[in-house]
Amino acid sequence: MLLQQQKMQLSAYSGLYDLIVPKENLLRKINELIDFSFIYEELLSKYCLINGRNAESPVRMFKYLLLKSIYTVSDVDVVERSRYDMSFKYFLEMTPEEDVINPSSLTKFRKLRLKDTDLLNLLIGKTVTIAIEKGIIKSKSIIVDATHTLSRSNPSSTIDVLRERSKLLRKTVYQFDEEFKTKMPSKNIGNDINKELDYCRDLEKRIENEPSVSEIPSVKEKLNLLKEMMEDTSEQLVFSKDADARTGHKSADSSFFGYKTHLAMSEERIITAAVVTSGEKGDGPELPKLLQMSQNNGMEVDAIIGDSAYSGKENLTIADEQNIKVVAKLNPSITQGFRKDEDRFDYNKDAGRFVCPAGHLAIRKARQGKKNIGENQVDTYYFDVEKCKVCPLKEGCYRDGSKSKTYSVSIKSELHQDQIAFQESDYYKEKSKHRYKIEAKNSELKNIHGYGRATSYGIENMQMQGAMAIFAVNLKRILKLM
């Protein structure tokens, strides 16, 4: 049961806060800056108002999570610190002698109360509203970029998982029949996935041919796990406890496994919008959402500042319709007037190559056609055909038996003449100087607020982590500018 929003109770010791928590304390400033009752109103429907025992104040629980993000500590540590840290107690609206919650309550609060809540947009919208009301946001530009967050769980390759499961199967068999070692097939010592599959099939066949072993429940269980894994390898995926995380590419030679957070930020360094996706998603396609969300949160936008990933045809068209300038360098691979399957193949500007619908990066590219003689040049991107052969999305994309899989884009030098001319203007050159600000903001999120690695599994938890981290950096920035 949820009572009316709790306020700090009267206590003979409350005067200690005036002595111990100085006026310039960050948490005191945050309490004075923002009325957290919007959290109570937002979560009211998640509680029963008439039955059950009294629930902890949702405002206080939310503040616990905010403290975790500001100071990058665990559930256990934030609760323990709130037992003796007077600034924490003051922020949480506790009396000095009041006892703390059980750390497990924070997990329940995240899972039961914050689930299905658009916390990310809610908190960003709240801070942008405050910044506008305080006259902090004066610019009409948004700077856009994406930052990556590593999954909490490291991925395993298909061959590694196959080997792990075949190893567990062998160990289980040996527990019941040590002499079965002499009947086992020779292990594959290379990294050829097909040879590893052949080994696993041979192992499966030999064990199933011995009912005295294969019918033992624990052996059958491990055998079924191996069979399931062999079927899953047809998708050529990495395997991880984090089912929503995906492999993204920071360059042609380096990758990461996790998520991307696509950000829009004002020139005053207040984040105005954010979208969390899996790691393989391109940056450019998220721009329309970031622009719309920034505008919904109260931003007036007359310029978008970003890198070449945002100079795609669709983005330029949307911006032109609203008389918004796009301060982003043209890239011939994504700014041509038309390309086939442009809604399926994403351009990764860090790697300089396209990513197929299954998330695989092109392994190389080649340019065809002669320059400056009126003939359109074409960039052709080549994909690993071995992955295409077993890809679950190959229908309509790869024809069985083909020796190669390519994706080509035409480079038409006549297009985007207006944008090319705009890139030479003083306005463009001046605005482009602000792009570094969002890279510094990404660094702050990662290095100070622990946004470099996910703290939980799944994209919903990643969105929640992003909401708290962005809320914290926005509040700190507002206080600094005030």
Automatic annotation (TrEMBL):
Coiled coil: none annotated. It holds the Pfam family DUF772. Residues 20-111 form the Transposase InsH N-terminal domain. Residues 355-478 form the Transposase DDE domain. It comes from the Bacteria. PANTHER family: TRANSPOSASE, TRANSPOSASE DDE DOMAIN-CONTAINING PROTEIN. This is IS1182 family transposase.
